[in-house]
Amino acid sequence: MSSANFSFNILRRPAFMFAFLFARRRAATRRRKPPMRRRFESLDRRLCLSGAPMIDMFQAVAGTGQLVNISGHVMDQNPAGIQVALSGSVSANVSTNASGFFSYSGAASSLGAESALATDSQNQSSSSVQTQIVDNPPVVQNLMVMETGNGQYVTVSGQVQSTSPGGLTVSLSGVVTASPVTNSMGQFSVTTQASALGTIHGAVTDVWGVSSATVQSQLTNPAPSLSVMAMQTGPNNTLTVSGHVNDMVEGGAVVTISGVASGTATTDSSGNYSLVVQASAQGTITASATDIWGLVSTVVQTNYTSQTSQPPVITSFNASLSSGGIWVFTGTVTDQSLVGLTVTLSGVVGGTCTVRSDGTFEYDSSLTYGAAGGAEFAKATDALGNVSNTAQCWVA
After folding, report:
1. pLDDT value at position 38?
2. Of the CATH numbers 3.40.50.740, 2.60.40.10, 3.10.20.90, 2.60.40.1180, which one belongs to the domain with range 313-395?
3. CATH class of 139-219
4. Which of 1, 54, 153, 216 is the most buried (most CB within 10 A)?
């Protein structure tokens, strides 16, 4: 049997034919594909073999002020001394170190795109790469408002959180208008006048022109409260109405009196008030307070009853000569209340004097010894208009 016939007969058998075809296909595949080692060689090696550098890391981070920190890495067969050109918000030229790393810090004109291009000693350049300079928006924190106790003046304070928090202008609006500037820690405080109770808004813009969200704080105040009392201090139902106003700002509140007596008074810095009025009759006196913000207290009241009392009594009245030869008149008065007592003199000398808190009084006349003589009289009148007995002494 010839070799050709042998091969033909072999291939006619199914098993032998399958093995023959598989071997031919495998040989053809090996001829078409390169070795696995070459087929899967690393991208880094292929790039290095190309000769051109490649920037495989590049970032730009906003720092304090308008400073931007730029850094990156260049991959090349010889990574040292490669020139990297920076452009965009920051323009500069830097060189890589022995490991291919580079860095630069410089002022930026604005946030936005930053590009880098690397050129090696063979004047081969990389592809240009780009990154974005971004900055987190500033945040106004802990916005607070407190009354100072001085009229409608309030103190507004807070803090700004930012990459560069110092020297930023905070815009306050609403019932307060002001523009405080932050210190190096981002803190701010301003004392100014509020137009009314209500909302205060705060916002800030950082060094890059990025604005914060607007935050707010409420200026609130509880309604005032007050006390009232009425005391008869003169004849014909003359009263002194007085009391105290309790409020965050006690000074400057207006107290309105109504009922059997009417009038208004303004509190002092301690919240106290007093006014003299004339009652139309015995009865109820009401009072209310309106504070500097226009808040009105609840109404309080007191009852007025006309007082009746015994008139004062002059228990002693004397005339004596001073060392200068001038007649001096002295005496003593008793009464339920010595407040507001006055003594009126008539006769040889006329005049008035006020009774001291211990009940004594003294009047220094201009009458000299021997100028005149006769009887001198004295009468005391209290705050309610009651008149005492008439006391008498002699001037020789």
Report:
1. 43
2. 2.60.40.10
3. mainly beta
4. 54
